Amino acid sequence: MPQIQPAIGAMMAETVPMVHTLGLEFLETTPERAVVTLRDRPGYRNHVGGPHAGAMFTLAESASGAIVLAAFGDQLSRAVPLAVRAEIAYTKLAMGDVTATAELARPAAEVVAELDAGRRPEFPVRVAIRRADGAVTAEMTVVWTLRPAG
User: Fold this and answer.
1) Terminal-to-terminal C-alpha distance of the chain
2) What are the percentages of helix, strand and coil residues in the chain, rounded to 5?
3) Tens of pLDDT along 41-92?
4) pLDDT tens track for 78-99
5) Which of 59, 93, 139, 150 makes the best surface tag, with the fewest CB within 10 Å?
6) Is residue 128 within 8 Å of residue 100, measured between CB atoms?
């Protein structure tokens, strides 16, 4: 059974206004995986009735941030996590609720070892966004860094 860290979702909703604005729901947040849902709301739709690309981007980026906090929360006293760049591909029409699943694409221990060696590590987080029927509607990669504090 995965260790779920519900406090991460609550913390993100308090500190990242857009997370609160979109009402993102953090279903699972572990060092291995983060799962976040964006519910279908008329105010977040695009011209074809699905979730707006910007809302989907924010959903995926937020899922990537949740896994970064879960995986590297114990490093926050010495490093600040920052998104460096992101790329998203919208692959199918999204309709209704959409869910983003984020996974680290590099072992956390490797990233921490770089930080320990005095370097500023960069690491990718891969995110898939799915409709309720399981079809992948978008794929995103966010490259994060741990910037040494001080």
Assistant:
1) 37
2) 35, 35, 30
3) 999 999 999 999 999 999 999 999 999 999 999 999 999 999 999 999 999 9
4) 999 999 999 999 999 999 999 9
5) 150
6) yes
